[in-house]
Amino acid sequence: MEALEQFQKEFLQNAAFRMDESLRMIEICFDKLSEELIWKRPNDSSNSIGNLILHLCGNITQYAISSLGNQPDNRFRDEEFTKKGGYTKDELLSKITQTVGQAKVTFKSTPTSEYVRVRTVQGFDFSGIGTVVHVVEHLSYHTGQIALLTKLFLDSDLGFYDGMDLNAKNEKNN
């Protein structure tokens, strides 16, 4: 396998792994939250978890599916933050799961040449690689917010890494 193809494959596998990890954590939070807490805003300057999920779906669709996948951009960003309901927990979880799945399919089917081509998305100029990095980090960033809100609402550990020894030292690589 050519080095560039190997790099692309490894990069996309790691991006998919990180996106799946974020989904896993969001699912754990959703399992613990009531329907009411999904749409609760801690204050007027904050978003609800429901808003964050809608925002993630809009952002991932705009960057990955629309831009990288060369599809029309039909995003209405402001609506992601003004909603105060309208979706159940299950609907929101299904929506983010489907959106992430569609983005991962788009990443896999995108030709190598599209990963170096620069495009304008939401007013920013990104290569295809920059687009993937943005999608992964943006999903991770808001997953952290969802986790924090869940902890604040429930005053409990989320157990993301139950059963794992996170104090294990790195193995020496030869």
Overview of this protein structure:
The protein is mainly α and 174 residues long. It has a single domain, classed as Four Helix Bundle (Hemerythrin (Met), subunit A). 65% of the residues lie in helices and 5% in strands. Strands 1-2 form a two-stranded antiparallel sheet. The longest helix is centred in the first third of the chain and has 30 residues. The model has no long low-confidence stretch (mean pLDDT 94).
Query: What's the pLDDT, averaged over the residues?
Result: 94
Question: How many beta-strand segments?
Answer: 2
Strand order of the largest sheet: 1-2
Number of helices: 7
Distance between the termini: 23 Å
Give the topology string: H per helix, E per strand. HHHHHHEEH
Oligomeric description of these chains: single chain
Task: Profile the largest sheet.
Answer: 2 strands, antiparallel
Strand content: under 5%
Instruction: Name the helicity range.
Output: 55-70%
Poorly predicted runs are none
Structural class: mainly alpha
Task: Describe the secondary structure blueprint for this structure.
Elements: H1 3-32, H2 35-38, H3 49-68, H4 77-82, H5 89-109, H6 112-116, E1 118-121, E2 124-127, H7 128-154
Helix pairs in contact: 1-5, 1-7, 3-5, 3-7
